[in-house]
Amino acid sequence: MDMDWKNLDFAMRPTAGSIRLDYDGQTWSEPAVMREATISLPIGAQALHYGQACFEGLKAFSLQDGGVGLFRPEMNARRMRQSAERICMVAPPEALFVEACLRAVELNLEYVPPYGTGASLYLRPLLIGTEPLLPVMPSSTFTLLVMVSPVGPYYQDGFAPVDALILEGYDRAAPRGTGQSKVAGNYAASLKSTLEAKAQGFPINLYLDAREGKYVDEFGTSNFIAITRDQRYLTPDSPSILPSITNDSLRQLAKDMGLEVVQAPIPVSALEQFVEVGACGTAAIITPIASVTYRDKKIRFGNGEAGPVLTRLYQELQSIQYGEVDDRHGWITRIKPTSQRPHHQ
Ligand code: PLP
Ligand code: COI
Asked: How far is the CA of 151 from the centre of ligand 1 (A)?
């Protein structure tokens, strides 16, 4: 495969294909290979009109020993079931979801960026309601697609700090809304504020809680993490943020490093106390945040470079993901040929 692996951006690229599963109202079909990059849908499909759509994001990595590993797919399987439940969809059982992901990687092994390039294969499982319905009601049929794309960093310069903006005119998720779920509508709702922030020169938006506008929630595509002067790892406890698998992993690694981990509401006024701030997620990995601008005030963290604690966490996480150190928490699922895997059901 002739690709400029070291200079990939975060984009959708043509691959060998995707994996498709259909739910007919009673059972899920076996994962099937889909070579074409288009699907045919009834024009009345529920997903298209009323937004019954949710998705996941996870990565496969070329390991140092020559294998290929998928990072914590069972966590994405569980989260897709939670997202689906919130908007009355039927998601595949966890084992079937993981199987579909493994099949998608297996189909696209030549698109998994080689070890040492710093890139990875991004998997995007997408669940949509396919039934044509006019009333606002749940679909009874669903399709799961697992598409993939080789990717580099989400933000252009990789592990280089970016400036964030809090735009007070927009909320990401309503109290008791769908902020905890990875549903398509959350992202549509964030487009306008994201464009507005970009136009003002900020690549990333930080959202506050929608009820009071007092607490830090998360970034549009990633969780908020911060390091205090006394070496604590802080991350918001909020009912409206996505439970990030990267954040969960980093909390474990931070504990392993001897940091105290605190999940608590973070008042926006506390931003000034932080010495390092990061945005964490599958796509973002850890993106260091150089500053947050709020009401014409620019709050800076550290000296504008990635700080030492987040740098170490980033290196620890990546060294597990690339199989350079012992997978001590059992986070890597190795890709084995289908013949060596137990058949589900
Ligand atoms: N928050 C939002 C809104 C996201 O879209 C994502 C990306 O998936 C995350 C957080 C990070 O979650 P994860 O680490 O599971 O990718
Ligand atoms: C991810 O990090 O996997 C995401 O889904 C973020 C964004 C690309 C929507």
From this structure: 16
Q: Which residue's alpha carbon is nearest to atom 9 within ligand 2?
A: 221
- Is 207 in contact with 215 (CB distance < 8 Å)? no
Contact call for residues 190 and 317 (beta carbons, < 8 A): no
Residue 343 has pLDDT above 70, yes or no: no
Residues 250 and 321: beta-carbon distance below 8 Å: no
Ligand 1 center to residue 178 CA distance, Å? 14
Alpha carbon of 167 to those of 185, 205, 276: distances in Å?
19, 7, 21
Q: Is 57 in the pocket of ligand 2 (CB under 6 A)?
A: yes
- Per the CB < 8 A criterion, the answer to whether 241 and 316 are in contact is no
Please state the length of the chain.
345
Q: Give the separation between CA 73 and CA 333, rounded to whole angstroms.
A: 8
| Strands 142-151 vs 204-208: parallel, antiparallel or unpaired | unpaired
CA distance 345 to 331: 24
To the query of whether residue 297 is one of the catalytic residues in this protein, the response is no
CATH numbers and ranges of domains, the chain: 5-152+332-340 (3.30.470.10), 162-306 (3.20.10.10)
pTM reported for the whole predicted model: 0.96
Q: Is the CB of 56 under 6 A from ligand 1?
A: no
Say yes or no: CB of residue 247 within 6 Å of ligand 2. Answer: no
Ligand showing the shortest atom-to-Cα distance for residue 188 = 2
Q: Encode pLDDT of 294-314 as tens digits.
A: 998 999 999 888 999 999 999
CA 86 centroid distance within chain: 18
Flag whether pLDDT at 345 surpasses 50. no
